[in-house]
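Side project, low priority. Logging it here so it doesn't get lost.
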Amino acid sequence: MPHDTTPSRQSLAEHLIRTRIAGDVATSRENNLDHYRELAEGNRYYWLGLELGDRWTDPRAVLELMAERCGVVANPKHRRGQDTIDAELTIDALDRMAVELRKAAESRARVLFATGHPAGMFAVHQALAAALRGAGCEILLPADRLYADNGEIRHIGGVSVLHRGGNLMHTHSPDPMREVLDAMENEGQEPDLVVADHGWAGFAGSQGIDTVGFADCNDPALFVGEAEGDLTVTVPLDDNVPPHLYDPLTAYLLAAAGLEARI
């Protein structure tokens, strides 16, 4: 990757805040607190495929964790209005993810990419998959004719997605990843590393697979999973801004991992 296309840490932080990938994000405080409460009350939709048992039944503990790892407002009395993601925490997590990507490249690992947010995060996953393939990794693809949640699991550009009725679906469900991993196990082909988001990441992490993921501030489960060791890294960001706005983030991540951009 040419040096002049790779942002410095400071310029990336400024870009993340300017585009609201971090900083004052679009997700409201009310939405965040609702999701933290749902997770604590045991609503498995918000567990994103992880098994949390009865360890996170206090919404205040979830808020404390999200303030620490994501940078939402820590004050529990802040109930309405704006919430935040700390851009410095985003970049710190990108640096940790870069370490895992570099290790995968060095070992020529088998890597599985998947996204439940194709309108936002697909381009990031696709670029990472292309770079790791170029570094000698095997990018694992789902078998044909796998189905979950009334849709078909497909791969595009090395990234697994859920397809339904001609559309690529936004999904939090862990079931697509469950189907993919079951099929791969039957074929004796399991990933060394998963790079994903939403339930794709949560379920992979719950199966003991090294997993790195991206998560918004209203998706606390992946941060809980990181805290408990089910996920290696969770990167906090708004996961649904226009895709081209992630380009500097992707460039930074590839450069930090020592990978060359391929698309």
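Brief comment: The longest helix spans residues 87-107.
Revisit when time allows.
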